[in-house]
TrEMBL record, chains A, B:
NCBIfam families: PRK13666.1. This is UPF0358 protein IDH44_13435. Belongs to the UPF0358 family. It comes from the Bacteria. The lineage of its organism: Bacteria, Bacillati, Bacillota, Bacilli, Bacillales. InterPro entries: UPF0358 (IPR009983), UPF0358_sf (IPR036270). It comes from Paenibacillus sabuli. It holds the Pfam family DUF1507.
Length: 95, 95
């Protein structure tokens, strides 16, 4: 493998891992969305916030390590943040 | 640069970044150790726990991305955990 092949392969791997982790959080959000009308788990917000914090640290590290571009990191995070915001809106509807 | 040079350079960079982050937490622990007798900040433990969690996610990601060996990740974390344990012991001395 050439050096640029190695880089491309490491970047792919990093992005794939981050996407997997993002999917796990996504799944947590979906589950809570589906259970909106049945029951609320009071710890859900806390768990999601913690997971989001951990994920943002992973993404930040990947960017600093030169594994993914800044924009790719921002995309991953803002997508999750939008979904989270929708969940919170659904959990706490305004009057 | 050869492909193995690229790998070595990425591994160095990753380890260096993690070491920097570990040093920041180390610093937080030191500051609290120095202030043991003067004043306790009740949020300190929470802040340190959060920082440790974020750091463990970074380390875990670096290992999974093939940037650092499992053993190096464990070393980074266990060193900090030992220092944290010392701080907590000093904060909560047994009768």
């Amino acid at each position: 493998m050439s050096s640029s092949d190695v880089m491309v392969s490491m970047h792919h791997k990093a992005l794939h891992l981050l996407q997997e982790d993002a999917n796990k959080i996504e799944k947590l959000i979906e589950v809570q969305m589906e259970n909106l009308t049945t029951r609320k788990c009071p710890l859900y917000e806390e768990v999601l916030d913690t997971q989001m914090f951990g994920f943002s640290r992973e993404v930040d590290f990947a960017v600093r390590a030169g594994l993914i571009p800044v924009a790719a990191g921002k995309d991953l995070l803002s997508r999750l943040e939008r979904n989270l915001a929708q969940l919170y809106e659904a959990l706490n509807p305004k009057g």
